[in-house]
Amino acid sequence: MAPEWRHRGLDLSKPSPARMYDYYLGGKDNFEVDRVAVEEMHRVIPELFQTARENRAFLGRAVRYIAGRGVRQFIDLGTGLPTQGNVHEIAQQVSGQARVVYVDHDPVVAAHGRALVAEDGSTTIIERDVRDPDEILGHPALKKLVDLREPVAVLFVAVLHFISDTEHAARIVQRFREVMAPGSYLVIAHGTRAAGTAAVSKMTETYDMATEKVSLRDPAEIVRFFDGFDLVEPGAVHLPWWHPEIEPHPEPHPTKWHFGGVARRPAD
Ligand SMILES: C[S@@+](CC[C@H](N)C(=O)[O-])C[C@H]1O[C@@H](n2cnc3c(N)ncnc32)[C@H](O)[C@@H]1O
């Protein structure tokens, strides 16, 4: 039987960020159009695949850190295709009580995600755009798993750079921040321009042809997304420098492509 997304008029003529990222990480859920775009970019950016692994490893360390501090509910915005170290796997290694709501607007991600959703009802996937925070927050599937009166972790890992207007991205994050209970954690990872002009231009041009454009930002713009929350040690940094002692550890020769951190909502 053809996968569900085949029936929905999906445009397979353009690369998609979710499938490109899957290819960066060595996955199999990608198409020729994605592989060609990525390989062309890889010729100009030799560290491309490593930067994706660095981002993914940060995600794992952040989830382990937060679950280790007693948080049992997670909202993972811009989930990506299932791969190694999915949020629910890491959180549930720390506590069998952990519950995870995945959100992604890519129908291929949603179809694969549904196959991963645990039968015990501790995880779910919602096919929505992060540009609709209220739809996500009011979604019955989210309300079933997440009690917003309790601390929650909200993850924006490698997704905000697909929102081209910085003010719009800031409003989206703010909407989530304002409904998070004291003791909640906000996780942000974001692509930067640190790699230099040629690499950044190549990446921007490639994503211009994809289903989503990319907008790399400077660390000062990224830090603003944490407004009102307290950054945990070591603050906002290039990702390989964030708690390298937690697993999965960074690789030798880290890059500065991605920047971010983890912040906690203080008591009112
Ligand atoms: C680079 S992947 C990151 C996956 C995962 N968060 C990680 O860091 O390992 C970006 C994901 O964000 C999703 N995405 C991009 N723009 C989005 C939007 N406006 N709403 C929901 N998901 C979005 C893409 O479909 C893709 O799956």
UniProtKB/TrEMBL annotation:
<protein>
    <submittedName>
        <fullName>SAM-dependent methyltransferase</fullName>
    </submittedName>
</protein>
<dbReference type="InterPro" id="IPR029063">
    <property type="entry name" value="SAM-dependent_MTases_sf"/>
</dbReference>
<dbReference type="InterPro" id="IPR006764">
    <property type="entry name" value="SAM_dep_MeTrfase_SAV2177_type"/>
</dbReference>
<dbReference type="GO" id="GO:0032259">
    <property type="term" value="P:methylation"/>
</dbReference>
<keyword id="KW-0489">Methyltransferase</keyword>
<dbReference type="Pfam" id="PF04672">
    <property type="entry name" value="Methyltransf_19"/>
</dbReference>
<dbReference type="GO" id="GO:0008168">
    <property type="term" value="F:methyltransferase activity"/>
</dbReference>
<keyword id="KW-0808">Transferase</keyword>
